[in-house]
Each structure stands twice: as C-alpha cells, then as structure tokens.
Design a protein that fits this description.
There is one protein chain. By secondary structure, the chain is mainly alpha-helical. It has one domain. It is 78% helix and 0% strand. The protein is rod-shaped and about 95 Å long. The termini are far apart.
Length: 96
C-alpha cells in the first residue's frame, strides 16, 4: 500500500487528548485519524444521499397528483371515443 503524509496543526491540549485516546484504544494516532476521517467522509456521503432522496421524494409527491389527474382525463377521453365508436358501429351515426 502506498501512503502519503498528512500533517495538521492542533492545540497542545487537543494533541494530548488525541494521544490519550489512541493509547486507550491500543492504536496509533495515525490509525485513529485514518478511522476518524473515513467515518467523516462516509457520513458526508450519507448526508448527501439523504438530501438527494428527500428531494426525489418531494418531486414524486408533487408529480403523483398530476399523473393521477392525467390518467383520469385519459380514461375519460377513451370512454368518449369508445362511445363514438359504439354509436357508429350501432348505425347511429358519427355525430354523437
């Protein structure tokens, strides 16, 4: 595995807390930082996915009533067309 060095500055108190936490977990500070950054990135991705899903749900919720109205109108139009065809076939003429 190829690695690269990442350096960041922090306060002495934060560094001491980080050292203590890593030691209590039996891990290196580098390992703790890799895990923490991986979790942070994964959470950011999950938050973005959640926002996209919420947007999609809003769009679907807005579209469904329009789709229902369009389907209802299409059914009514087909019923009118069927009535005209039935009248023509029954010999009543096309002007129904």
């Amino acid at each position: 595995m190829q690695t690269e060095r990442v350096t960041f500055l922090t306060t002495p108190e934060h560094k001491a807390s980080l050292d203590a936490f890593a030691a209590s977990q039996g891990k290196s500070v580098g390992h703790v930082m890799r895990e923490a950054s991986a979790i942070y990135i994964a959470q950011a991705t999950a938050d973005e996915d959640e926002q996209q899903l919420a947007t999609l749900v809003r769009e679907v919720n807005a579209a469904v009533p329009r789709m229902r109205a369009d389907i209802k109108e299409a059914i009514a139009s087909m019923s009118r067309a069927n009535a005209v065809v039935d009248a023509v076939l029954a010999g009543e003429g096309a002007g129904v």
